[in-house]
Amino acid sequence: MSALTAIEAITDRIRERSRPLREDYLGRVEAATGKSANRAVLGCGNLAHGFAVCAPSEKIALGGDVVPNLGIITSYNDMLSAHQPFEFFPQLIKQAAREAGGIAQVAGGVPAMCDGVTQGQPGMELSLFSRDVIAMATAVGLSHNMFDAAVYLGVCDKIVPGLVIGALTFGHLPAVFIPAGPMTSGLPNDEKARVRQLYAEGKVGRAELLEAESKSYHGPGTCTFYGTANSNQMLMEIMGLHTPGASFVNPGTPLRDALTKEATKRALAITHLGNAYTPVGRMIDERSFVNGVVGLHATGGSTNHTMHIIAMAQAAGIRLTWQDISDLSDIVPLLARVYPNGLADVNHFHAAGGMGFLIRELLSGGYLHDDVQTVWGEGLAAYAVEAKLGADGTVVREPAPEKSGDDKVLATAAKPFQATGGLKVLKGNIGLAIAKTSAVKPERRRVEAPAVIFHSQEEMNAAFKAGELEKDFVAVLRFQGPKANGMPELHKLTTVLGVLQDRGYKVALVTDGRMSGASGKVPSAIHVTPEALDGGVIGKIRDGDLIRLDGEEGTLEVFLSAEEIATRTCVTADLTANGYGMGRELFGAFRAMVGQAEAGASVFA
After folding, report:
1. Same domain, 178 and 191
2. What is the pLDDT of residues 404-422, one digit of tens each?
3. Alpha carbons 16 and 244: distance in angstroms, whole number
């Protein structure tokens, strides 16, 4: 069976499974579609409030029903490097909208928190839930019904998935996502990781560590490793929500500004007031999500998206599962080596050919659906290009390069880095879990060792410092799931486990929590579901129980009989401290309502 045939079969399976929900969703999209400007249904008082601060000419235009009005949903703040460039985007967008004969207004802002700031801190327990808060904040901004299309300014971990969920909830509106781009390359990621390990071993001090971190994260734009933020940008482009070639152009450059203006004009061109109406709810379908999963596998994308993309699909009435993701992983080759899956950063990836080269290779190998709608029009082949700045200051596009600019960073479909994708679903008597195999050396993907139980990162770090982990073991870190404490990332463990692995021990991690999109070289079974607080088997494992994690075969087993597992009771943990401080008391309802990781860890489904 060819790759295309297999991928079409998986897509058909998703389509059939989703049919009732998808039909209901599309019915709601159709019912919300107006015959004139959406604001035409507003009373005079409503409308007067909506354009009170506009210029007189804009009020006249908005008072009629023929001029499109563009809503801007922004995640701007100036603490986060990835979102700081958005400070200047609304003015560019408004200028471009006027040039196109439309109007643009900032419809609302959404929160944008940084997992890099909150790693290992109490605030990290709000991180996953912020995705659904962002979706709700998007809905608040668009609920005024003043807009005929929307542009979404977001980059990082939970922000883009939350914006997508919000956009699909307003599926009758065209949606164009506008990125800010990555920061320029700083201290190489592998060198930063080396200093982190030295610090964990007590060989360098805090001053040296801070210097290395500051040289790595040094200016405006996304962090340059291939974590969730840059996986988001790949995903938006391969799903057709960016304009072609927009994802990885650095902020503060003429090309970045030209792409922003172009995206604005395109959003206005595809409203229902014109001839190319492209509502996002109809545009994004099962094929779009399959293309997104293919992109994640081909690039070794973030494990966080095994939850986010499921939650995003649900918002469009599409039932995507971990089994679908696993089956696609067995088909799709790994074509990119970007840290933590390699030494390169996203700027090197972009310079080697970037998204245009990647999409062309995947299309030519039969791994992508070309017959999809995008914000650019019909067909994904239009994205197999490289965006450049024309002599007149506008965007021009050329075909993607025929050869990779660096075959250690970006490979062809004919000669991939490995035959299968970078993500793996693990199954066994412990439950379901996710493993990112692309960053783990093949000889380390299978670990069989006794369990050592922990209920917090701090507990495990203390054991490491006390010299209690100088052995082969599988760390079982539980009560880290969404119901327990909001499912924080456990990135602080990456360095500790990496040190022990480098010392020659066979180590692995099994947890119902998350790991950072930057994590990689240590074999890990994450997102274990059911989680411990839900009665999952992970809550029954004891110190010394033998565990096998096999990233090649896709299995996760504790060596206990079914009878022994049935007779054991789940341990309990005092989670009182996780309910208060740094705003956690406001999220008790989220912890009570949230679904399992395999269903997207969402409060909506």
Report:
1. no
2. 999 999 999 999 999 998 7
3. 30
- What CATH number did the domain enclosing 509 receive? 3.50.30.80
**CB count, 10 Å around CB of 186?**
20
Q: What Å distances lie between residue 200 and 188, 496, 498, 521, CA to CA?
A: 19, 7, 10, 16
pTM of this structure: 0.95
With residue 262 as reference, give the H or E element that holds it: helix 254-269
Kindly list the distances between the CA atom of residue 307 and the CA atoms of 141, 295, 434, 513, in Å, as whole numbers in the listed order.
25, 15, 10, 12
User: Is 384 found in the same domain as 242?
Assistant: yes
- The CA–CA distances, whole Å, from 258 to 2, 185, 253, 391, 525 equal 40, 22, 9, 12, 43
The amino acid occupying position 94 is K
3-state secondary structure of 76: coil
Cα gap 511→485, rounded to integer Å: 13
* Assigned domain for 410 exists: no
Residue with tokens 């070639």: 245
Same domain? 277 vs 214: no
What angle in degrees, to the nearest 10, is found between the helix axes of 286-299 and 354-364? 110
Is the pLDDT at 541 greater than 80, yes or no? yes
Q: Which amino acids are annotated as binding site, given as ranges?
A: 156, 223
Residues 345 and 437 in one domain: no
Structural domain count, the chain: 3
Residues of the binding site for [4Fe-4S] cluster: 156, 223
- Domain containing 203 equals 185-218
Element holding 389 (H helix, E strand) = strand 385-389
Does 337 share its domain with 483? no
CB-based contact 542:560 (threshold 8 Å): no
Strand, helix or coil at 315?
Answer: helix
In contact, 110 and 154? CB cutoff 8 Å: yes
Instruction: Provide the 8-state DSSP code for 437.
Output: -
What does the DSSP assignment read for 462-506?
A: HHHHTTTT-S-EEEEE-S-SHHHH---B-THHHHHHHHHHHTT--
Tokens of 507: 């180590």
Helices 322-329 + 286-299 axis angle, to 10? 50
Using one digit for the tens of pLDDT, what is the confidence trace for 206-231?
888 878 887 888 889 999 989 899 99
Q: Is 409 helix (H, G, I), strand (E, B) or coil?
A: coil
Q: Write the burial class of residue 135 (CB in 10 Å: 0-12 exposed, 13-18 middle, 19+ buried).
A: buried
Task: Give the Cα-Cα-Cα angle 544, 537, 592 (nearest 5 degrees).
Answer: 130
